[in-house]
Specification:
Layout (H helix, E strand, L loop, with lengths): L9 H11 L3 H4 L1 H14 L8 E5 L5 H9 L4 E6 L2 H18 L4 E5 L12 E7 L8 H11 E12 L5 H7 L14 H10 L3 E14 L2 H10 L16 H11 L8 E13 L25
Parallel strand pairs: 1-2, 1-4, 2-3, 4-5
Antiparallel strand pairs: 5-7, 6-7
Helix pairs in contact: 6-8, 7-10
Length: 296
Amino acid sequence: MTTDAYLIDKARVRRSFDRAAGTYDAAALLQREVRERMLQRLDLVKLTPQAVLDAGCGTGHASAALSARYRQSQVISLDIAMGMLKKTMAARSLVQRLFGFDRRHAVCADIERLPLAAASMDLVWSNMAIQWCNDLDQAFGEMQRVLKPEGLLMFSTLGPDTLKELRAATRLDDSHVTVSRFIDMHDIGDALVRAGFNAPVLDVEYFELTYDDVMGVMRDLKAIGAHNAAEGRHRGLQGRGFLQQVQARYESFRRDGKLPATYEVIYGHAWKPQPRVALPDGLSPVQFRPRTSSST
């Protein structure tokens, strides 16, 4: 049986983010910036949710911001890694002590298999998490399932140009995967429609982080838990020779004394429509609208 080399090893993802829980916040500069931009986009949306899901919550900063924004809402922080949830819960306890309010709950689960009741959420939020899903249709299908009619999905994820420099520098042979595969914005839009979302809106933004050397890139990826989790990755230790080759190849991207690391960030939002009313065969719905008058 042939296995997709880019299939994500979820057990490795869980272990990587468990280990990175203590170092994540210091290195997650991009995640922090994208989170703030997503929150700004919420300013344009009229929404008073009673139940919010933060899918792939990491260390819980978005959960805290959503809880503060929607004071009467129940916010569920969900992550595949228990280490991340422990950080989230510790921060939650601090909020409770300082302000005396908090309606957040933590759930350890996979986005592709949400342990939540159908039509139970008014808002599903996911910042930089769905790129770790193997089946985008399954993930969006689960998000659509747990949303109430007229509920909102808001998310960000990574597009194909992400880490293009590292991908080029580490592609020394075609037999192993060195950088994850990321999904194109148009394919994401198609997946939203297949899942039953209404009028999805997507746009893309490019970020470039700069480093003194390639080891700085790798240290940041390790600190946030973004290890290569593809099934087709190298399983053994790669020697000094491999690292030297990667360093030499990455140098071709140096500009103004710095090495770039490109991130293509895709933002999206979509609404779950009201269910269609089933009519007997041969009948069509008729809409009545008030008559408008015009002066002549």
